[in-house]
Amino acid sequence: MNLTATLAGMPGAEQWADLPDAWHWSPNPRFNFSAVLTTDRRHLLQVIALDFHDEELVRALLAFAREHSAEILGNQHPLTAVNGFTVPGYGFDTAVAVAPRANRYHAQDASLHAVTYALFPGWHFEFSGTETDSEALFQASHPQGLRATRLDRQPVPFLKMSYHNTATESRSASARRALAKEDTLLRELALLEGAPGSLVEFENFRHQVWRAEWDGTFVLTGEGSRLELDRDGLLSFARNSLI
Q1: What is the rounded CA–CA span in Å between residue 13 and residue 7?
Q2: What is the model's pLDDT at position 144?
């Protein structure tokens, strides 16, 4: 496949000024697509921006990711988070590329999809580095994931958790820790109060794991320590552990 010709042939495609092998096209007012060839010229790094588009941000992201093509292409994991990406006016500190096997870009064109990496900006604490294919696909493409196409999004700390509560009779779908959101963790931690036999287990992007229970007070164990905390202390600890 001639990727240069393919990108140049996208409806309304224009080359990015001063950025080699990069194009931008917009099929409708809501979507802006941008892509750059990797340094081996055999793969694409593509940004999809929904509703909000910032040319300076996207150009910087394309250029940074292209410079790190070898790291991205050489990673055996489906998701590569390259730290050190920054743009004035934004809090992002990481460029993220998701391999073809874990994204849905160009799903209607198998040949193009097979060489396309989904690219978006993020924060280092959103990624563990050991995401499975299904986890990377969820983060990159599912509406409940990271909302990777929203360049104006807020950070979503990496979190895996499991829980069950004897008082509310609620529990996670699996006894194994799975991807979850911070508000779910904070809610379930608070609901431990007065519910002996209940449990919340959670893991952050550093793979640190804690276990919270109720024993007349909130008890938190993990990483070689045992803490007895009040409600505010437990919730504060949990928030801080995720960043």
Answers
A1: 7
A2: 92
